[in-house]
Amino acid sequence: MYKEIFPIRLKSYRKEMGIKQTDIASNTGIPRTSISKYESGKIEPSIESIGKIADYLNVSVDWLIGRGDKK
Questions:
Q1: 53-65 pLDDT, tens per residue?
Q2: What backbone torsions phi and psi does residue 8 show, to the nearest 5 degrees?
Q3: Mean per-residue pLDDT for 3-12?
Q4: How confident is the model at residue 70 (pLDDT cuts 50, 70, 90)?
Q5: How many Cα atoms sit within 13 Å of 11 on the Cβ side?
Q6: Tell me, what's the pLDDT at 43?
Q7: Torsion of Cα atoms, 62 then 18 then 30 then 5, to 10°
Q8: Contact criterion met (CB below 8 Å) for 47 and 6
Q9: pTM recorded for the entire structure
């Protein structure tokens, strides 16, 4: 469940907020190519990467991985 929801929420929220993959990459230290692969579901992020992305997007990790509906 979590690995199916994470890519969808990451990509849709990023686009909704007008944030580019390069913005996430430059602010988290995660390569842009990895962000792209997370969004397409080709690879799964580490726990550390999920935390960095959630912090940058100002959303909860639980929301990002599909454990809740509260951002």
A1: 999 999 999 999 9
A2: -65, -50
A3: 95
A4: confident
A5: 12
A6: 96
A7: 30
A8: no
A9: 0.93
Contact of 60 with 68, CB cutoff 8 Å? yes
Please check whether residue 60 is in contact with residue 31, taking contact to mean a CB–CB distance below 8 angstroms. no
Could you please report the per-residue DSSP string of 6-59?
A: HHHHHHHHHHHTT--HHHHHHHH---HHHHHHHHHTSS---HHHHHHHHHHHT-
Can you read off the two tokens belonging to residue 64? 């990002």
Categorize the per-residue pLDDT at 39 as very low, low, confident or very high, splitting at 50, 70 and 90: very high
DSSP string of 45-62, one letter each residue: --HHHHHHHHHHHT--HH
What are phi and psi for residue 2, nearest 5 degrees?
-65, -40
**Which residue in this structure is represented by tokens 């580490």?**
46
